[in-house]
Amino acid sequence: METIHMPFDIVTGNSERVVLTETIPDFFKDYEMTEANHTIAFGSFGHMSFQEWHHHESSISLRYSNSLAIKNDHLIFQSKEADLRLQFALNNNLHFIEEGIGTKELVEGNFNMFYVPALRHEQTMQANRLYSSFSVHFCDTYLDSWADCYPALKIFLNKIKKRQAAVLCGTNQITSIQMNDIIRQIVQSKFTGIARSLYVDIKIKELLMLVLDRVSNDPVKQQTCLSRTDIQRFCEVKNTLIENIQNPMSLKQISRKFGLNTKKIKAGFKQLYQTTPFNLLLNTRMEKAKSMLAFSELDITSIADEIGYDNKHSFSKAFKKYFGYPPGKYRKTKHEPVYNYSTLDN
Predict the structure, then answer these.
(1) Residue 41 to residue 6: CA distance in whole angstroms
(2) How far from 230 is each of 183, 207, 237, 267, CA to CA, in Å?
(3) Architecture category of domain 228-335 in CATH
(4) How many CA atoms lie within 13 A of 337 on its CB side?
(5) Where in the chain is the domain with CATH 2.60.120.10?
(6) Each residue of 15-25: pLDDT tens digit?
(7) d(CA 36, CA 32)
(8) How far is Cα 258 from Cα 33, in angstroms, rounded to an integer?
(9) Superfamily for 9-217?
(10) Alpha carbon of 215 to those of 110, 275, 345: distances in Å?
(11) What is the model's pLDDT at position 227?
(12) Are 146 and 208 in contact (CB under 8 A)?
């Protein structure tokens, strides 16, 4: 079994060694990110999939982690190197203790930016849960050019220059649908080589701008008052809505199924996802329809049925209202032939 290097050392809470391998278990193969170095860490705690992709031109690295615990445990990550990261909790709440920062809980659907001059990060995990996070790791000079536009970032960077542990926001911020879309696009993108470098560079700038605009113009000022049980329920509601896209549930049906009143559902979605259940469902439907129009041969009537519309007319009307053009026109532009300029004579 071949062992490989990771940017930190890992041990369990009981100081048990963790084995590293490039052999990817089947249950992690659906999470692979193009051109990333993919390492599996395993031990008595369970399995952790760790992927890292470097953008060498800007000294940025992307890290995508998925950990499946088989018992209650905690992992300790250590490195002598400084760590400046923008971190998003994608699945389940991330409970950790970070030297210099203290105890933190990054709730699913939240983000924050952290800096420590040396890494000692202790993450708690519960049995039979999948913990997922996506993080962008910067060198501090990359962020310097943004500081004049965003005072909160400038204060944060001043602490970094003094090598003081720092958190960008006193309260974790809510990850918007647009931010989630960018993360998904980066992870699922199939671009390789120079094309991937260009694509990721654009997407990271777009993501960073959304983050800094949120922090500066519309920050969450106090942590959500929802209980952990409620947060888990809203995650289940969201997943149920998306899984039943072909037969969408009404707000009353959701209320009965999950034992939540409609007012609390609306308020919870606003706090966690900054949208309503209807808009989240609409966004999912439209993005799926757009993908099917571009990459499948299904006719528009079949696509309408696949995403839960009664007929082609109601789907076309909704698609045009959402994107500004009808589905037929979008499909036509996507299927127009592209001239191959490489055939031109020099």
Answers:
(1) 10
(2) 25, 28, 10, 11
(3) Orthogonal Bundle (1.10)
(4) 3
(5) 9-217
(6) 887 899 888 88
(7) 8
(8) 34
(9) Jelly Rolls (2.60.120.10)
(10) 12, 18, 52
(11) 61
(12) yes
